[in-house]
Amino acid sequence: MLKVNNLSVYYNDVLALDDVSLEVEDKVITGIIGPNGAGKSTMLKSILNIIPHEGKTLIDGKDSKSSLDQIAYVEQKADIDHTFPIKVKECVSLGTYANLKLFQKVKNKEWEKVSQAIDKVNLSEYSERQIGELSGGQFQRVLLARCLVQDAKYIFLDEPFVGIDSISEKIIMETLMDLKAQGKTILIVHHDLSKVRDYFDDVIILNKRTIDFGPVKEVFNEKNLKVAYGDSIFV
């Protein structure tokens, strides 16, 4: 289980997260929703200790700082340089590095995992392509394949469905469902409220502070959405 305790973040004295506390159950897909500027991505980066913050996150009872090897993270596509001259299979192989010793090279065993992961996201025919030649949806699938070979217990994805095609979205969701069935715990920053009931078991509703969290059927309701988004939201 992942527990966030009193998490606060300031950007140049501007409050981005305000004393957020919540729990994420194991072996479920949890969506993180809220309006722009609500602190959704900031929360993930705080848990990962990428940015300075107040408060603490516990992963299976231990401080997240000592448990980062259990987390695979896919940041927003716009924040990644997909023009870097690297092939699809090489990009996916980066996910194996977390399980290798210092200076250890990727061997046949790891390359087999890479091949299986690329096949899982239906990109085998693109294995030798440069990542810059891919569509947005295909590149997002490469990033997910990189998570597969990392074999982490927790998977964080920040807006994985933005700017991708419907085929890629379907493949990604099917893959995530399979990962959940294997016992993985998945957190997804998401913006399309129409897909929440279809995609997630649990949901976290944020607007700089915790509005509510828990099973979708219990907390994804008009009252909480209006608190988060304002009375003008169409429910």
TrEMBL record:
Keyword annotations from UniProtKB, A to Z: ATP-binding, Nucleotide-binding, Transport
All residue ranges annotated as the ABC transporter domain in the record: 2-233
Tree of life domain: Bacteria
InterPro entries, per the entry: AAA+_ATPase, ABC_transporter-like_ATP-bd, ABC_transporter-like_CS, Metal_Ion_Import_ABC, P-loop_NTPase
Membrane-spanning segments: none
Pfam families reported in the protein's UniProt record: ABC_tran (PF00005)
Family membership: Belongs to the ABC transporter superfamily.
Name of this chain's protein: Manganese ABC transporter ATP-binding protein
Source species of the chain: Xylocopilactobacillus apis
